[in-house]
Amino acid sequence: CTLLSTRAEADLQATNPFLSAADVQALSDFVVAVIFHASRVGQINRCLTEARGLLKLMQPKGGAFPDEPAKRAMAAAAITLKAQTLAEQILTKRSYVHADEATYDPRFLLFEFTHNLVLRKAQIELIMDYVDAVRNGTPLVKQMIMGGGKTTVVGPMLSLILGDGKTLVVQTMPPALLEQTKATLRATFSSIVRKRVFTLSFERSSALRWSTVEKLQSAMRNNGVVLCTASTIKSLQLKLLEKMEMMVEP
What we know:
Largest sheet: 3 strands, parallel
Helix content: 55-70%
Number of strands: 5
Oligomer: single chain
């Protein structure tokens, strides 16, 4: 977790006062090297799995491919797809590492290490587009296909980057996806990187109290993530308008 801390040197020296600044830097470099190595080992294992699958397809049962043209075409298509997948795995790069400047983003590195995966370039670009939009106060809408990593990659990474104690991170989703998203985020932020995940429920019949505001402010200060449905946001807005109208009435 010190990779994500702006006070990493002070934290380590508070834990062990015998560490010098050079020792802290050496320790940090060693940890980064181990994480990079472990992440690459995981990628190699995925390549080996794809290679074994390709070999299995190229060694059909009986030692020969079927004679029927349709079955041979299906076998050729399966081999082509598996070979393409293997090639993509072998050519996978870390898109957040800038070799010319010898720099990298430790947040992406730690996320990859925690989940044993390699982030795709499109995912990193999407995440940074959202971060820039939030920092600049501009709206942004993107669309992703199913399986693109909205719930397991983009959402958690945005919660990690934007949940800095100054920004309240709120994720909205359909009611059917609320429990799944909650389980995913709690699993993501329960080991190395820890964040509290809250659920906000509000209806038109609910009472709007200051305690709700204080809880949201507490979630923001503690870098938490608030989950809710679109109807909750609409109900809060309507309740606020209702209260404001009551205040201006003679």
